[in-house]
Amino acid sequence: MQLANRTAIITGAGSGIGRAIACRFAAEGAHVVVADINDAAGMETVAAIEDEGGTARFVHTDVTDSVAIEAMVSQTVDIYSSIDILVNNAYFCDGGDILTVDEALWNRNISGCLSSAFLCCKAVLPHMIDQEKGAIVNIASVNGLLGLGEEGYSAAKAGVISLTQNIAVRYGEHGVRANSICPGTIQTPAWTAVREKDPNVFDRLAKWYPLKRVGKPEEIAAAALFLASDQASFVTGTNLIVDGGLTAGLKRMGEELVGAGNS
Ligand SMILES: NC(=O)c1ccc[n+]([C@@H]2O[C@H](COP(=O)([O-])OP(=O)(O)OC[C@H]3O[C@@H](n4cnc5c(N)ncnc54)[C@H](O)[C@@H]3O)[C@@H](O)[C@H]2O)c1
């Protein structure tokens, strides 16, 4: 058990990647706090963990609300006495390019992805510094690395990578590690609306991936487990790209640009 008796807060753990991380961490012995805005989904995650013999609590949390975050962190400390791991996974993504996104929508993307991670780190860090240990894992995206559209979301995810590096540098001497993960396309409920309009979207996107498929939530959970565990005791300030090779070469795009076999 890699996380025996550690306490882990996972935001957005009611669905997709967050749920997979919560289940994996619980299977590794962690006491998991499922912090989600969706009560039914959060409680489903808790039930799934308990069915497997793990320990979890649901705490209703809106990660865009600093008061709610402080309350969730206090509740976690009251229940489990410590906070060893924070995974910032909840997010908001909507809107297209800069000319069509209005200021309010832009701000919702920044608030839902970046300010939320900042607020959760700010609330948890004093406890980790007091304990002189802690691991933060921030879920960013390949959108934070390249110009892939969804500008507000992408800018926020680039900010998450920078926030992570700064936390790693500033609080490393207090035993706090901070790392980010950039997933490529992962099959989660986040894609439900897109799949209703375009049922073959994953097959279409798979062509861009050297592994010729999109990813599974469990594959991000495995990366998060590594970064949160003692296996990564000398890993901090890094950004782990878990994207089936998408950003390594954008091979298909390269083929289209310079001709197959020439690159
Ligand atoms: N799925 C992908 O293809 C993909 C790719 C790259 C990065 N990511 C990142 O992975 C993370 C998880 O994505 P997913 O695909 O699992 O999404 P998802 O939609 O399946 O789950 C998101 C969860 O976050 C919760 N949530 C939303 N707003 C919240 C708020 N204000 N407060 C608390 N909880 C809130 C939702 O209720 C839901 O349970 C996100 O950070 C996303 O940017 C996903």
Short overview:
This protein is of the alpha/beta class. The protein has helices at residues 16-27, 39-51, 66-80, 103-131, 151-171, 192-197, 201-206, 217-228, 246-249, 251-258; strands at 7-11, 31-36, 55-60, 85-88, 134-139, 176-183, 239-242. Helix 5 (151-171) links the parallel strand 5 (134-139) and strand 6 (176-183).
In quaternary terms, these chains amount to: single chain
| Average residue pLDDT | 95
Q: Give me the secondary-structure category.
A: alpha/beta
Number of strand segments? 7
Summarize the amount of helix as a percent range.
40-55%
CATH topology: Rossmann fold
- What does the radius of gyration come to? 18 Å
| Global geometry | globular
Distance separating the two termini = 44 Å
Low-confidence stretches: none
* CATH-defined superfamily: NAD(P)-binding Rossmann-like Domain
Adjacency order of strands in the biggest sheet: 3-2-1-4-5-6-7
Order of helices and strands: EHEHEHEHEHEHHHEHH
What's the number of structural domains? Answer: 1
Task: Please tell me about this protein's structure.
It is a single chain. The chain has 263 residues and is α/β, with parallel strands linked by helices. It has one domain (7-190, 214-246): NAD(P)-binding Rossmann-like Domain (Rossmann fold), CATH 3.40.50.720. It is 48% helix and 15% strand. The chain contains 10 helices and 7 strands. It has helices spanning 16-27, 39-51, 66-80, 103-131, 151-171, 192-197, 201-206, 217-228, 246-249, 251-258, and strands spanning 7-11, 31-36, 55-60, 85-88, 134-139, 176-183, 239-242. It has a 7-stranded parallel beta sheet, with helices on both faces. Strand 5, helix 5 and strand 6 (176-183) form a beta-alpha-beta unit. Helix 1 runs parallel beside helix 2 (39-51). The longest helix is centred in the middle third of the chain and has 29 residues, at 103-131. The protein is globular. The model has no long low-confidence stretch (mean pLDDT 95). Nicotinamide-adenine-dinucleotide (NAD) binds next to helix 1.
